[in-house]
Predict the 3D structure of the following.
Amino acid sequence: MRGQQDNRKRALALAILVLPLAAFVISLGIGTYPISPRALVWALTHPGTGPTPEGVSPAVRDVIFRIRLPRLLLALAVGAALSISGASLQALFKNPLVNEYILGISSGSAVGAALSLVFLGRAFPPQVAAFVFAVVAVGAVLVISGQAETHSISLLLTGIIVTAFFSALLSLIEFFASPYVLQALFFWLMGSLSLASWKDLYISVPLIALGLVFLVLLRWRFNVLSMSEEEARSLGVNVRREKILVIASATLITSAATAVVGIIGWLGFIVPHLVRLMFGADNRRVVPLSAALGASVVIIADDIIRGLSSFEIPIGIFTSLIGIPVFVILLKKARKVWL
Amino acid sequence: MNIRVRNLTFSYRDFSLRIGDLLFESARVTSIVGPNGAGKTTLLKCLGGILPVPRNRVFVDGRDFAMLKSREKARLLGYVPQEHDSAFNYQVLDFVLMGRASYISPFSLPSREDARAAEEALEFVGLGRFASRAISELSSGERRLVLIARSLAQQSTVLLMDEPTTFLDPKHEQDLLTLVRKLADEKQKTIVLTLHGLEMAVQYSDEMVFMKGGAVAASGRPGDVFKEPLLESVYGMKIRILDFEGRKVVIR
């Protein structure tokens, strides 16, 4: 009985791990300009220039390489980044309600990226300022809430205060931005993948990949770090050092993602919860599966957005509109499991 | 393996702990007793490496405790907290496995040997059949045993237990202390625990340390130190000790 259940879970876990790859390939063909599987395969295997075969439009290559590939790669990276940082931070702060948004990392990154956009222009990579301000924001949250033994409530309240402060800063930046920049800023802030370019990818994807590898390697350690600080210390963990390590990685990947796509809320919250509901609390599973599921969710959500209408709803709005009701249902159904 | 404490002081707000000289010996059960706020838990946490200890104050087999890395401390001393309260509901075996943290690099996973050590520890406390249960499904007595199992998986020779019997019914209290005895007698562990139940402390320990106001009031074998005048001065109340069929009974 138990063994059978284990096998089913293992199969499900495997399915979730390959889901992003499958979603990625299938999504290359989806959009306002539909591409047949045959044309898709041809384009992917002939990336350079040269004549197109019978029945394949020359536009196919452009659509795939200039629009869809960067967009999907970004969706993949961002989904994985936000979900894995949510899962890691929840374990680290021993609190399933924590995520990169609550800790001020998202709003800090947004302020940094907005400042960079307004004052340094599009040519300068916004990731740098995003990371710096994200560190400032999360640092402020930790200092104000009294980092030592983090009481959940004080941490959450401080997070709200710091986030509010950075939102005000953001409004101030918007106030001073020229109308043209303001419009770009506005779309970006709502969380949009439509602006994806290779240039953004070249900077953000390696940073995200780096943090991702790091957090995935640490996955068992998160179990120990989710114990009280005293317990973790008595188990032989240098809590302070490892805490800084994890917060730095989570901040790095969140700011790298936010700098390019704006704020996509609720993902780092809901995805790890879903995974925990399906597989239990063991972070050896929760951490990598959150990354895989998060990547798939963003890719599929983006497919829906692109398929739904000719105009695009920003994905940040979409994830919040869908995510919050889903979360409320989960919370009602399974309160006792993890709270 | 023994622990020697020498002139240890630790201050926290308006409380201060002052320990002159104490020795906890190998394969012995030492219970620390005394009223609330006497500093029992603080002492235990200093020994457990949870609270910072200055140099040349605590020695484990002659090695200065303050100079050890957190990993090394954990391999020498295991600490069993009073209660465990987590936001996450781990499976029992996964929980016990966390005791192996000091043997596993932060960037790797527990090996098969680690898993075996965890299984053995769980088996030793008699909860082998609960391995794949969720922590939340256990009773508080069983949870206490799981905490002990986690410390056993740590394979430290010293075990520090903070009030392991609180909230346990008499039967579970007795079972737990029998297990503690077994750890000292069969596994040669050095055991230091804080207790409130004086009768149990007398019955199960080799040494007793009486604490009051952050200092040691008396220490020694139960037969030598467990006397009415000492108890009355430590607890500040009238206490009588009766002998009943070779056992000490405390009347208050």
Q: What stands out?
A: The two ends of chain B are 37 Å apart (CA to CA).
